[in-house]
Amino acid sequence: MHILDLAHLAERVRQVELMKKKKEKYRNEQKLKSKSFTQKEKVAYVTMESSEDSLISKQRSIWLNLRRVLHMDLI
Predict the structure, then answer these.
(1) Of 1, 5, 6, 66, which is most buried, counting CB atoms within 10 Å of its CB?
(2) In this structure, how many other beta carbons lie within 10 angstroms of the beta carbon of residue 62?
(3) Per-residue pLDDT reduced to its tens digit, 7-63
(4) 0.70 surpassed by pTM
(5) Which domain of life does the UniProt lineage start with (predicted)?
(6) Could you state, in order of their start, the residue ranges of all structural domains in the chain?
């Protein structure tokens, strides 16, 4: 390709940079589409029991375990 002047060169550089940005955007979109979901959903289950104290104790235990798990993920 023959470049006639600096204005033509500058325009060609802009075109190439724009093409590179579009290509990078396309690659990123393809990566996101092909990426499997790696985060696991954390669910806490609470069972109903007849004793209110037992239920509160179990809820507290589940809450503490959930906080511990979430804290470990942040580290």
Answers:
(1) 66
(2) 14
(3) 888 889 999 999 999 999 999 888 888 776 656 666 777 666 566 677 777 888 888
(4) no
(5) Eukaryota
(6) 1-35, 38-75
